[in-house]
Amino acid sequence: MVRTRKIGFEVATDAPYNEGGRWIEVSPPDGTPLLVLSPRRADEPRPEVPDELPHSPVFFTCDDIEKTHRELSERGVAFPTPPAKMEFGWWALFEDDEGTRLRARAARLRATAEDKGRLDPESMTQDNEVAPARIVVVTPRQATAAGGILARSHAEYPSFRHLFPDPGRRARALAAIFTGVARDAARLGSAYGALGSDGELHGVAIWLPPGRFPWSAVRQLRGAGWMLSVLRADRGSFRAFMETGANGARLHPPDQHWYLETMGVDPAVQRQGLGGRLIEPMLTIADRD
User: Fold this and answer.
1) How many domains does the chain fold into?
2) Are 94 and 82 in contact (CB under 8 A)?
3) Of 53, 84, 60, 89, residue with least CA distance to 277
4) pLDDT tens digits along 122-156
5) What's the pTM?
């Protein structure tokens, strides 16, 4: 079994299941996450994805991806794509014994010399790296934090500067807008966040599944509260804001697709590759679908 003998996973559970079957769970050495293994049926097609992409949306994070590549290669694991530095960070593709391509990525994001001068020292590790982040699904309870990140990252966006000329009113309006947008996507399970080692969100990507944009009447009613907050924040700009949203909904392509409604990274940690990492999970799902 390649996942135990070669990759180094440990068998957590191996028990009888149904008639003549086995329930097998394996995990990395740190114990998380648990993966349930099952053989591919003879009539089960493999997902069709481009050769440069993984078959599975599950990503494995390595503290040192080049060291991991060397160790696994010595054990006979095939790497169709050896470690390579991309715009969103280091990654590699490896295969299991059925030829399923899986993805490994580096755990840490290195800061450039320019960025090191402007980052908060508390957000840096001792070797001048941005605190490690992992990509998680944002929950409704995290919507306020997610909205704050999106509001800060879009504070100087030209269209919002035009809609909300006053900086103070703009900040309050954007916090209300993006908190509502994040809460809506979190309810759908399609909001992703970059969670740092400090337990705080540092970036957010808001996706909507096919058929979920424009918003339904029910979702619009549910969002009435944050729309009233925008009205209170800048009454003079509210009409233009609503007209802009209505035009966007009217002109939105009608075909079925995953829609990246918005995304942003906290200004304190921008240009570290978090944006690329945030969109990776959903791009893989979209390619698979």
Assistant:
1) 2
2) no
3) 89
4) 443 333 344 457 889 999 999 999 999 999 999 99
5) 0.57
